[in-house]
Amino acid sequence: MRVLLFTLAVCLVTLGLTVGAGAAVLQRATPHAASATASPAAPGLVDVRTGRAFSTAGGSGTLTLVSFLATQPDTAATPSRSQSVVLNSLSTQYGGAGLRVAVVADDPAAVPRPVLLNTSYDWGLRSVVLLDDPGHRAARHFGVASVPTSFLLDGAGTVIAHWDGYLLTAKAAAAIKPHLGSGP
Fold it and tell me: How far is residue 39's CA from residue 138's CA, in Å, rounded to a whole number?
């Protein structure tokens, strides 16, 4: 019976559902109004693979989708891990049209770089950049209160869309498409 309940819980989380008070409730990302002013690039983000600084301002003609996710513990039941599937899909669909996708490891405790590097391979983040946020500076910069939380930024680093919670592919695509010259 425990195995069946665990399997059901994993399936619900993978589909973006959570079990609360005995009932399945769909948690959709809550969209927020776009920021009216440009935000300077988020401070302190480091690409886990290269060790180089990462700027959230991608330049003219680009968009950057930044998702703050919990990478540890790394289990199939974490909503953040299933969110990475959506991010990989968006990167594949819109990367050629100018979308950059990044995951920010927003874990309560510091995670060693080798562990984060392993997570990037375990989660299959081929075209998605995994970023470390030492001291949670970028999370504070964006006002992240919980994970998953995602932001869509224009080339200057201005927040043009913000979602709290699990981001569905269709919701992200609806925000991305108007800002890119081409794509699916």
Answer: 12
